[in-house]
Amino acid sequence: MFARSCSISRTCERNICVDSIDRKILAELEHDGRLTVTELADRVGLSIAPCHRRLRELERSGVIVGYRAVVDPASVGLGVEVLANVTMERGDFDTIASFEEGIAAVPEVRHAERLFGVPDYLLRVVAPSLDDYAALRDQKLATLPGVRQITSTIVMKTVVDNRPLPLAQPEQPRP
After folding, report:
1. How far apart are CA 119 and CA 65, in angstroms?
2. Cα angle vertex 154, ends 148, 158, to 5°?
3. CA-CA 20 to 30 A from 107: which of 43, 51, 58, 79?
4. Secondary structure (3-state) at 112
């Protein structure tokens, strides 16, 4: 997880080296994932073949993990968003594994993170209405293995969402 310098202009994470041109490619794709390789090459100042090679290597190495459309939840009837803090009763391996498997099977959970400290998990959940969320919370989330407490906070307004990573300026290697 710690960055190490591969050369003057490259930074490596988990044995994956990313240089300033790769960062430009990534920034452009985060802004518009539908760019053709020709458009991408033009924007980052490369010819098509080297740009295509770099793009395929970023995909192969797992730096780029996928492409998708970003859909507005309210426009498809999922206008209620809730942040659910989950505190676990037990933290043993089997309980945690069962809980995580269960939470992964709930399609309304858009995002789930295991945290250090309390709460143990932070979930981002969508629902058509507050009543639908209440039913989901009581019938699915609260019945998952090891759950002691769920504290729900309704999102009033999303201020920043799906922001691209700050890739425009490459990190400088640490001395």
Report:
1. 28
2. 130
3. 58
4. strand
The CATH number that domain 73-154 falls under is 3.30.70.920
The residue among 108, 99, 169 whose CA lies nearest residue 134 is 108
Tokens 């997880």 belong to which residue?
Answer: 1
Instruction: State how far the Cα of 13 lies from the Cα of 2, in Å rounded to an integer.
Output: 6
What's the token pair of residue 64?
């780029």
Q: What does the pLDDT look like over 28-75, one tens digit per residue?
A: 999 999 999 999 999 999 999 999 999 999 999 999 999 999 899 999
**Paired tokens of 42:** 């033009």
- On the CB side of 165, CA atoms within 13 Å amount to 12
Nearest alpha-carbon partner for 93 in 110, 114, 108, 111: 114
Give the pairing of strands 80-88 and 147-154: antiparallel
CATH architecture of the domain 4-60 equals Orthogonal Bundle (1.10)
Q: Where are the domains of the chain?
A: 4-60, 73-154
